[in-house]
Amino acid sequence: MSTTPQTPQTPESERAGGVTVAEVRVLDGPNLYFTRPAVKVSLRLPGYLALDRKAATELARLVGLGASSPGKPGTAQRQRFVMRFAAHVTRRLATLVGVQRIAVRTRTGRGVDEVVVAIPWRHREWGRATGEELGPVLEGLLEVHAQDPVDAADVEDVLEAAAERVRETDPGPASQVVVPQVPVVSITGTNGKTTTTRLVAHISMTAGFVTAWSSTSGVVVMGETIEAGDYSGPSGARAVLATPGLEIGVLETARGGMLLRGMGVASNDVSVVTNVTADHLGLQGIDTLDQLAEVKAIVTTVTKPDGWVVLNGDDPRVWAMRHRIRARPWAFSLDPDSPALRESLDAGGRGVTLLDGEIVVLSRGKDPDRLARVVDVPVTLSGLSRFNIANALAGAAAALGLGMPRSAVVEGLKSFAPDPVLNEGRLNTYSVPVGADDAAAAERGTATVILDMAHNEAGLEALLEVAHGLKTPGARVHVGIGATGDRPDEAIEGLGEIAGKSADRVVIAHKPKYLRGRTIEDIDGHLRAGLARVGTVDVETYETELGGLEALLDAARPGDVVAYMAHDERPRCAARLVELGGSSDDPRTIRRKVVEARGGHELDAEIAELWALDDAAERVSRFRALVGDRPRDLRLAYELACALSEAGEDSEAVELHVATVARGLREPFRHRAQLRAAAGVRTLGRLDEALDLLDEVSTTHPGSVAAAALRGLVLADAGREREAVADLLDALLDHAADEDATSYRAAVRAQAEALREG
User: Fold this and answer.
1) Which GO MF term does the entry hold, naming one (predicted)?
2) Fewer CB near the last or first residue (10 Å), C or N of the chain?
3) Boundaries of domain holding 56
């Protein structure tokens, strides 16, 4: 991937006067300043900021700048004056070069003495040369003004000399920004752009189009990666559009490429902005979310007038981008009553949202077009991932905006899975055997592992949201976090704070390939600072992602979820999961996990139907058939054991209840199975075994009335009636709330204790 040569820097201490050229950057495509190629000049102008008011006014007069109010030295008003002054000088220089009516854009820099000047270019080297001459011209004007007396002719000499140097420069090539010959969609945003890119490409291939796409993972043609690496910039766009026989191009468009080189295409047919959240702030002059939103909006400014701009109506900064577009708006929102949807329809656009659990397209004056149920769209993880629901809405709108058949859009939504094949590194979920090492893998329970490229706070929050949605009742969430070195301190600390608040166990796993100027110790310290803010201090550190993952798996138990931020070592981590007997979850498995996490089972309706049967023998037979089809499903084994108990088959019921508990049956059914087993062994006369089971239930579920009642019966059977009555009195008082119980609680407890000792 080539880079744009930049002007060599001269240390400020070696330059005369009060002007420093920080950078001259050639932008080869639509950019933050213009919808065509431009040159950006970043300047520090302390000499201009330090001029007294009279001197600044005189200097403005000498260059022909109209009435102006320079303001006091060093003020923000002076900075605005200097921006206007620099723009005027730039126009005069361009006129002398031979360019009439040139557009000039200026922006403030980080400091009050910093300004940015940008101009468009038609010939690359003339544009660069003009930008390179701006600093010397501004410095030369300061030097002329410092003369006594000031000669106005010297001002003209400074400008003419610079213009002459530009005219003597070889013009260089004309603008070669790519004009797409096929429909193109440009997709940007802080989070979700890679998933949305892949989804749109998948729908396009489902529709039968020859499709190529570029993203942070590489350049892909019809599902085959032809160039690996980060191709979310102009080079990726060029590679995609050079694909032989191409019919649809899908371009992930990242902030870095737009800032450093401009967009890779002159226009697009559809643009998508997923969201704007804090990420990479403090780099390349982008310090605030509003500035970042302005960068993301570049893709929308070059969308053709008859095209579509797909905007997140739930993100105010994204929805505000509609004010600069020439194309038609298409809002997407998780809220069907969002004002953005109404505004989009009123402006002649469309909307896409959720109604009654379905993805629907809204058009003015028409009934909602229902595309698919959210639970039938695998990338949403059965509706669990709000971020991916939003990505599915955006992807559907983009595909329809490109003119793809509705049937292909529906089919593509239903067949795009969040697995390592179609969406590598984005919420890839696995089932991995965990628990006793001496048990056969088939007999061990499984934990869920999620590998995700979460790289910022919003991404980690989305990952943990899914982790909690997959966690079974009573289980734990483990998280492995790490950070890249190009994030601000507060962003790295934010990752630690989010993890500490949301997870039961945290480990830090570093990314040596992504230190980017920092040390492991530095990043580690900031992550720990964030963790400490929420009281999480007992955290282990690992120098590799694989090491951290293995540590979390060692501590995981059946039903737990391991949420893992994996970047450079993601392939090794995925391979290790397979080595441990893990497998990638298909949509059906994910759906089952979501239901179980909510305390249900995918066959709840059928289970209820069997329990409604009057014939106990038939019920047992039907449950045996279900267990035969799903021998590893412990919930079904539990239901069979209960059916056996109801049918009077106590011996087999007890054996099966004990086996399901040993194999990792999860709550709320685990302690219920122990209670059932205790009742069964009591019937069989194994009273000591019943008491052991009830003691375990009392430990995990203190205050269980069922356990107390059953224990009283077992003690009575064992001839320990006084102890049984004492225990039942304690249990009664634990749950009594009337005034009499309150008044006599201490006395009755004393009598109960006397019975035990008696």
Assistant:
1) ATP binding
2) C
3) 12-167
